[in-house]
Amino acid sequence: MSQERREKKRQKKRKYRIALICSIMLYLVFRSVPSFLATSYRTIVPEQGVLTDKIVTQGIILKNEKVYKADSSGKLEILVKEGERIPAGKQIAHISLLNDTSQLKQELNEIENSITALKKSEKEKELLKVDESKLGENIEDLILNIQENINKGQYAEVQYTKDKLSLYDSKAKDISGEKTLLNQSLDNLNKRKEEIEKDIKSNNINYYSSNGGIVSFNIDGYEEVYYPKEFENYTYDKIDILEKDKKNEKPKVDVSVGDPLFKIIDNFEWYMAIKIEDLKDIKSFEKGQSITLFMDETKKEIKGKILSINITKNKAVMVIKFTTLFHEYYDYRFSTVEIVKYKKEGLKIPSKAIVEKDGIKGVYIKEISGIVKFRPIKVLGEDDKYTYVQKGDNRGFIKLEDEKNPIKTITLYDEIFLNTMNIKEGQILD
C-alpha cells in the first residue's frame, strides 16, 4: 500500500472518531436541557410565619422579700427545702442554744417509746385477763385437792399438788404485770413527756413564716435595695446591673446573733426594672400598656404590665409588673431581657423569589393550568434570607398604596418560582 493511501485511511478514521465524540457530546447536552429547565422552574409554597422585632437589654428583678436573722447564737436546723412554697405560720427553722439538752432528749425518746408500747399492749392486756381468770379457777381446784388428800392421808399427793400450786401462783403474778410496763400509768408518762418537752423548748428559738411565699436561702444583700416601691426612683443613672448573681449556699450550722438565716418572697406579684439605651426603641410603649418579653434563663414568654417609664435624657428605665411564672425566676436578681416590640403574622417566602413589575413588588406563581401569573405582595419585614408578607383577606386580596381597588395576592398554597430569570407572565409551563 502506497504512503498516500495509508494517509487517507488515517484521516478517515480520525474524522470518524471526531464525529463519534461530537455525537456523544450533543446527546449529553440534549439530555441535560430538561434538568436545567427543571432547576430553573423550581417552585416552593409559602409558610406561615411570625416576624418579631426585639430589644435586647438588661433588667433587675424587684421582689417583696423578708429576711429572717438569728436572735441568738447556737445550732441552726432548717425544716424546709429551698424554693418550697409555704403558708403563713409554718415553722421554717429553729436554733438550739448552747446549753446541752442531750440527756433530756434521750429521756424523751425513751418515754415516747414506752407510751407507744403501752398503747399497743392494751389488746394484749385484755387477752391476759382471760388467761388470769382460768389460772384462778385452776388454783382453787388445787387447794381443794390438797384438803382432800390431807383428809385421806395421801401426803405424797399433797406435796405434788403444793408444788403445782406454787407454779400456778408464780404465773399469775407474771400475768398481773407487777413491776412491768403494763403496771405503769399512761397519764404519768404523758405528764412527764410534757415536762421534758417544755424544758427542751426553753433551749430552742423557733422561726415561723409571718406570711406565705417561697423560701430561699440565697440572701444577696439587695433585698432592701431593689424592692417594689417608689418606682419613679428607678432611673438609668441610679441602678447598677451586675453580670452575674451572687449565690449563697445553705446557711451554716453554727450561727451568731444577726446572721441571716433565710428569706420569704411573695410569689403573687414580682417586678422588673429594665434599662433602655435609646428612647427610640420604646416610642410605641406607654404606661399601663401590656408588654411581652423573654428572660435569658428560660427563654419563656412572659407577659406583664408597664407601671412606669422613667426618662433620663435619651435613656430610660421601664418598670414592669408580673403575676405569673415567678417560681422559675425567684432566685435571680439580674437578667438579660428581650423585649418584644411587635409581632406580625404573615406568609414567609424566600427573598430571592421577589421581583418588581411596574413599580410593584411581587412574585411569579404557577397556576394549576400551568400558566405563569404575577402576584403583588405587601412586605411586613425581613430576616436573614426570608421576607414576611401580608396575608390577604378571606378572598386573598390586599390593599396597596396608590391603588384604588384591592389586588389579589399570594395564598398559602400557591407555587412560587424561585428563579425568575426566564419566567414571564402568561408563559405556559407543563
UniProtKB/TrEMBL annotation:
The keyword Coiled coil is assigned to this record: yes
- Every copy of the RND related alpha-helical hairpin domain together lies at 102-203
Query: RND related beta-barrel domain spans which residues?
Result: 270-342
The coiled-coil regions, if any, are 179-206
**Residues annotated as domain RND related barrel-sandwich hybrid:** 65-266
Stored InterPro entries: Beta-barrel_RND-rel, BSH_RND-rel, HH_RND-rel
What highest taxon heads this organism's lineage? Bacteria
Membrane-spanning residues: none
Q: Does the keyword Coiled coil apply?
A: yes
Q: Which of UniProt's keywords are assigned here?
A: Coiled coil
Please report the name of this protein according to its UniProt entry.
Answer: HlyD family efflux transporter periplasmic adaptor subunit
- Organism equals Tissierella simiarum
Q: What is the lineage of its organism?
A: Bacteria, Bacillati, Bacillota, Tissierellia, Tissierellales
